[in-house]
Design brief:
Helix content is about 20%, strand content about 35%. It is built from four helices and ten strands, in the order αβββββββαβααββ. The chain has helices spanning about 1-20, 115-120, 140-145, 150-155, and strands at about 30-35, 45-50, 55, 65-75, 75-85, 95-100, 105-110, 130-135, 170-175, 180-185. Strands 7-6-9-10-1-4-5-8 form an eight-stranded antiparallel sheet, with no helix packed on it. It has a two-stranded antiparallel ribbon with strand order 2-3.
Length: about 190
């Protein structure tokens, strides 16, 4: 009986170790708050640890009550938008736009997926959040790995394109909710003291 108990405890420990090491869909690669796009240069992430969170510099024209985290996973971008304001935030499949901006200045529109699934998040209630998974566009992956003018890249399909991309090339992510709110997310690096 004692050996069976030890075996069961060993299996449980192994499963906990296995699941503890698996991907947790972390979304802490990018962070941003609502801001006028003209003030993006004044938004600076100055520190981040998993214990204390993110520290940043902002201006009075920025709204820290509407913020977002994003993470890069294979060929997808997972975004969580949090509304800590007192008013609902409207989302709309047709009007909203999600952009990936490279350091070289190229912009790529991220695919929002199914319209009904997206609009089910409307509105983001006060003290609520919305999580969405967007796909990187095929042309972004092709431009990154095969060159911008390579005919071979135009023949690739998404299923054949299994390469991963370099997060270091991304300047920021932009979330444009309708025509009224813009959240700009910048890369987060962990700071150790």
């Amino acid at each position: 009986m004692k050996s069976k108990l030890i075996l069961i405890c060993g299996i449980i420990t192994s499963l906990n170790l296995f699941y503890g090491c698996s991907s947790s869909s972390a979304i802490n690669d990018f962070f941003g708050i609502e801001m006028p796009p003209s003030e993006v240069d004044y938004f600076k992430i100055v520190g981040y640890t998993e214990f204390s969170g993110v520290s940043y510099q902002s201006t009075g024209n920025m709204n820290p009550n509407l913020y977002a985290w994003a993470g890069i996973e294979d060929t997808q971008v997972r975004i969580k938008i949090t509304n800590n304001s007192d008013e609902p935030v409207k989302v709309n499949y047709i009007e909203d736009q999600y952009l990936l901006v490279e350091k070289e200045g190229d912009e790529f529109v991220l695919n929002k997926g199914d319209m009904l699934d997206y609009n089910n998040h409307d509105p983001i209630m006060p003290q609520g959040s919305m999580e969405i998974v967007l796909e990187l566009p095929k042309d972004y992956l092709n431009a990154l790995y095969f060159g911008r003018n390579d005919d071979f890249a135009n023949d690739m399909t998404r299923e054949q394109n299994t390469v991963f991309y370099d997060k270091e090339r991304i300047k920021n992510l932009q979330i444009k909710l309708g025509y009224t709110k813009t959240i700009i997310l910048k890369p987060v690096i962990e700071y150790t003291k």
